[in-house]
Amino acid sequence: MSLTILCITSHFKGMPLIEELKRQGCRILMIVPEAIKNDPWPMDLIDEKYVMPSLLDITNIQNAVSYLARTEKIDQIIPLDDYEVSTAATLREHLRLPGMGESVTRMFRDKLAMRLRARECGIAVPEFSAVFHHPTLNEFMQRVPGPWLLKPRYEAGSMGIKKCANASEVWRWLNQWGDNQSHYLLEKFVPSDVFHVDTIVWDGKIKFSVVHKYGLPPLTVSHGGGVFTTRSMSPDHPDAQALLAMNARVIESLGMVRGINHIEFLKPNGSDDFLFLEAAARVGGANIADMIEYATGMNPWREWARIELAHLRGEEYELPTMHTGYSGVIQCLAKQEYPDMSAYGDNEVVWRLHKQWHAGLIVSSPSAERVEQLLVQYAPRFMHDFVTWQPPLETGRE
User: Fold this and answer.
1) DSSP per residue over 162-219, as a string?
2) Residue 122 — left, alpha, or beta (φ > 0 → left; ψ -120 to 50 → alpha)?
3) pLDDT (tens digit, 9 = 90+) per residue, 46-91?
4) Residue 286 included in any domain
5) Number of domains observed in the structure of the chain
6) What is the domain extent for residue 42?
């Protein structure tokens, strides 16, 4: 059965998903903003590409897609980045298409909603407060020692986060934001190791999940500069076992039925316990999907396409054949336009990033210890050879 899939994205990504959709005979439509219209999209695979000035105005997008639906029988809408997860949900509701609707999607986009839901279900989270009732916010800051993080409820990753040492800093930002302050939450800053679990869910059941550990916390890298690393952990490690169990509780609590999840957890310094940080209904960024593919032979982008098509066709989804291995990714902003990474010649280097003003590698090995060893060795070399820094963006939008 030939299906028409509409993909929406503000960023250039998701090529394995597009390739799999086309391999399975789909008609592929794309909507992208003006800012990325000239990126190297595979137009031999994409049947029609539509460009809008921006993807920020949901009314404009809804009108545009409704007009498109007059001549195209759209079977499914897939967002390729975090920012369009909510947009796709709104469009599915409007066109009455299958998939995550607005209520469930909010649990994977709104940091306040996901924390409240997790806490209601008995899952440990960092102490936090909504930014609605000012006396309640004051009481929180008096009760919970700083520093705190002011976090945008709907941004991705570390975008727009402000670290505040005292109440005066908090109020300075909130007063500056005015009517927009309710779109933030205040959270206790917890010095921690940071982990992520990447998962495939089908019919409410976890079909695949793997635990990874970041090197420096992503917030530290984005706000202070440095080298981003993450690596897969042995499922036999006690931390991995605890996180797999906690991850399953989070997915059930947030109501995930079908798709891909990237969920982050904290292990506070000096503690053996974990805290749920945030969840996304998407493939992890920073080349995490490529890292997973080199470790297992399975690419989450491709599986996302297979999941959507299996559901539309009334078929059962089954994981592909995989192998057992470990991998890690290291990358940074670079001071060179096209960094020379030829000095990194270990046999375990399986992939090199080709992107202006960035340096990056993936290493893969049958040994988790060897992957960790290489990333530990490479991080200071990357700092010396490549690293530059620029202030973090306020938003990842176009």
Assistant:
1) EEESSHHHHHHHHHHHGGGGGGEEEEE---EEEEEEEEEEETTEEEEEEEEEESS-HH
2) left
3) 999 999 999 999 999 999 999 999 999 999 999 999 889 999 999 9
4) yes
5) 3
6) 4-101
